[in-house]
Amino acid sequence: MAKKKFKAESQRVLDLMINSIYTNRDIFLREIISNASDAIDKLCYLSLTDDKVGMTRDQFKIRIELDKDARTVTVIDNGIGMTKEEAEANLGVIAKSGTNAFRQDLDAKKADEEDLSIIGQFGVGFYSAFMVSDKVTVETRKYGEDTGVRWESAGADGYTVEEFDKPDVGTRVIMHIKPDTEEEIYSSYLETWKIKSLVKKYSDYVRWPIEMDIEHQERKETGEKDDQGNPKYEFETVTKTETINSMVPIWQRSKTEVSDEDCANFFKETYRETKDPAVILRVNAEGTISYKAMLFIPGAEPMDAYAENRKGGITLYSNGVMIMEKSKDILHSYFDFVDGIVDSPDLSLNISREMLQHTRQLHVIGTSLEKKLKAELLKMMKEDRPKYEEFYRNFGIHFKAGVCDEYGRYKDFLKELLLFYTSEDHQVTLKEYVDAMPESQQKIYYASADTVKHAMDLPQCEEVRNRGYEIIYLNSAIDQMVMETLHEEGGKQFCNIVTEDLGFETEEEKKATEERNEENKELLDFLKESLGDRVAKVRLSGKLISQPCALTTEGPITLEMERYFRAGPSEEMRKLRATRVLEINPSHAAYAALKAAYEQGDKEKAAAYAKILAGEAELVAGVELEDTSEFVKLINDLL
Ligand code: ADP
After folding, report:
1. Distance 113 CA to ligand 1 centre (A)
2. What is the DSSP letter of 123?
3. How confident is the model over 321-358, as pLDDT tens digits?
4. Which of 133, 151, 428, 566 has the greatest number of CB atoms lying within 10 Å of its CB?
């Protein structure tokens, strides 16, 4: 029989498949099963209006047969089938839909390997069979035709097509599996367990039953008895036809049919979690884009949250066929902890002619799901605060990172979800903080340290608290960045009580403090000199009440940022330091003693006092003392 040539454009894609540039060969089965399912859809649809089809819905099925000796995997369907012309038109050239668009894309871009990765996400169609086969035979008979057609190809050099006698309507795709190579054990595709697992992974929710003959060992009486008179048994291999896909996914069933408990069980089984999910979100959207979604917020931070192979994230389905695991295109990274499924018939399995179109669709779905997730969380915050706080302990960090992401692009969406400590055991939202502000309060005060307790102990807090104002206590570098990104809430500016003007001093008081600094310039310069590089400046403060001193900073880098940078990836980053200022309380006895020593000419003593004050300020601010033994000695001498 004469070989016919593939159309030139088909040859290129075929070459790609045969040479397996794309490495995820497993998806070939999904593609062949999808075609079978589509063909059944067509005949089933026809049967609704055409009595002559003579089939009822429950008779349609897909069958997979494995033959180790012949090295074949065969996918059989009783769908619509193809005529000779159709077989040539559909299999001899790249189909009109997906693969063709992919080819155009390839030509347009002179695709590199990266572009090829998309073909695994969407369909690669019939040709993917050549990733695992050195020959593919398609035997098909169209509904309404008397004879069948055998189409066969062993690769890019062409195909043959002939009529033959096929007793039943439908299609058999026989894939002759390649011999094993050093890199690839193609024989695994002849193993029942492997095929079963591929069906489970990619085609579990195909609407039609996918059947396979599966061998079991069964115990059978031999008819003989043992010494005690008990029947003797032997094992025999029994082959049973089993449906290996679940067909109807839990998220496709109606809400009334599936309880929250069912959903929770599905979540625990699928994601190997032990705790019930904190939130179950079910969506059945109809409209320009229809989709069903079942999303979960885990009840605990998963043990393997950051493991590459964790099963979580959003899995994308289209009509029961899995398109993509861990899709990053639906939800923003601040919802990275959400697990679940989005299933939309509007996402075709093919590589779309317009990838952009897909991106837009995914974006529309994502935006709507994010709004719903947020609403659920706000509801939880209002109705069950302890539960929300637990959620926030587990995943709040994602929202904080989200606020800082892309120069604050998502801050307005996220800020209502943030919680801040106002004491060690109390957290508020920014809105709650502002709503509770006394009328006289002009700013939102915050203090940061490595723990809430340390932040509360900062000397600068005293004056703010004395006025009856609450302070937000931050305990991580990211908190500080969140504050800088948010900038304000309800028209009230944030104020870092360590570095910024608290806004309490009147102009006169400020002037008085300045004058006092001016008057004592000589002493302050001397103190700065005796402290060396430890601080950039020593000044008298108008902010301190009962504490003798405090460490503050000037400029953009705060002490928390410095701590954060110290663990940074580059040497340059690790070297960044805050500009430190030692503020001294001029009304405190310690200052009086220091000043007296200086004025009496005992500079050594004055310098020792300065070092003690600096050490004290550093300790309270959570800065590590550079010379602990000197500090201890100075205090002992004093005692
Ligand atoms: P696509 O599915 O994207 O159209 P494929 O390369 O997978 O592209 O298939 C090409 C065409 O071949 C299909 O559109 C369909 O018309 C036909 N086809 C493939 N498999 C079958 C089948 N099992 N039964 C009937 N027609 C089929």
Report:
1. 26
2. B
3. 777 788 888 999 999 999 999 998 877 644 333 444 56
4. 133
Is the shortest distance between the CB of 104 and ligand 1 below 6 Å?
Answer: no
Q: Using CA atoms, how far apart are residues 342 and 293, in angstroms rounded to an integer? A: 4
How far, in Å, CA of 360 to CA of 354, rounded? Answer: 10
Task: Tell me if 448 sits within 8 A of 553, measured CB to CB.
Answer: no
Q: Which residue has its alpha carbon closest to ligand 1 atom 2?
A: 125
How far CA 8 is from CA of 156, 315, 352, 540, in Å, comes to 10, 36, 21, 84
SS3 65: strand
- With b for 16 or more beta-carbon neighbours within 10 A and e for fewer, the 312-337 pattern comes to bbbbbbbbbbbbbeebeebbbebbbb
Phi, psi of 39 (to 5 degrees): -65, -35
Strand order in the sheet with 279-285: 279-285, 291-297, 339-343, 314-318, 321-324
Distance CA 33, CA 195 (A): 12
Predicted confidence (pLDDT) per residue in 418-471, tens digit: 999 999 999 999 999 999 999 999 999 999 888 999 999 998 899 899 999 999
**91 CA distance to ligand 1 middle (Å):** 7
Cα 160 from Cα 136, distance rounded (Å): 11
Tell me, using a 6 A CB cutoff, whether residue 95 lines ligand 1: yes
* Cβ-based neighbours of 289, under 8 Å, separated by 6 or more: 344, 346, 361, 364, 365
Return the percentage of the chain with pLDDT > 70, whole number.
90
User: In terms of pTM, does the model score above 0.85?
Assistant: no
Nearest to 582 by CA among 629, 626, 620, 633: 620
User: How far is residue 202's CA from residue 124's CA, in Å, rounded to a whole number?
Assistant: 14
Q: Which atom of ligand 1 approaches the CA of 31 most closely?
A: 7
| Cα 62-65-67 angle, rounded to 5 deg | 170
* Distance (Å, whole) CA 292 – CA 364: 13
